[in-house]
């Protein structure tokens, strides 16, 4: 029975990975074929030729509330998917975002937000997420949810994640290293690719927040 359960977990992880990878490839091909997006001149953020509509979803925030598609409306939101036990990519990314946030003018901060979504809900409880993200900045939003909700939104965003097999009581999670940009209409507007440049990110977000 244990062998069957392990096989089921591996199959589920591969299904998640393959489905999301297909979405990512399709998105990449679309970006290669279409012309560059019109709009303000940016130095780091890559805007898509046309924003992409996203499906409804519901995740659990670390503060006890819910994170839904409606919460991504009304501002520019930078969203990164990772996990708190991540040894390098996640803390480095959130450190860069912390520096970008510190560089934003006060007026821009009213129209911009950074969200961290964990793809490891089994270990990343609301309390753990609150402590982890709060270390970087208490204004950052943290959330997670079950695989049904996580797969729905990551697949739509062209991102991937897959958990490894437990070993000695722990496991790693493979996940996309890019962050996504959500526009004030709750659509996927672009992408931020590593290595991240805090100064350029802050400048681009300031431009976007001030654009009419």
TrEMBL record:
UniProt protein name: Protein SCO1/2
Q: Which UniProt keywords apply?
A: Copper, Disulfide bond, Metal-binding
Q: Which residues are listed for Cu cation binding in this entry?
A: 86, 90, 175
Tell me the disulfide pairings in this chain: 86-90
The record's listing under PANTHER family reads:
ELECTRON TRANSPORT PROTIN SCO1/SENC FAMILY MEMBER (PTHR12151), LINALOOL DEHYDRATASE_ISOMERASE DOMAIN-CONTAINING PROTEIN (PTHR12151:SF25)
Q: By its UniProt entry, which InterPro entries does this protein fall under?
A: SCO1/SenC (IPR003782), Thioredoxin-like_sf (IPR036249), Thioredoxin_domain (IPR013766)
- According to the entry, every stretch annotated as the Thioredoxin domain falls at 48-210
Q: Where are the transmembrane segments?
A: none
Keyword Lipid metabolism (UniProt): no
GO molecular function: any one?
metal ion binding
Identify its protein family.
Answer: Belongs to the SCO1/2 family.
Presence of keyword Glycoprotein: no
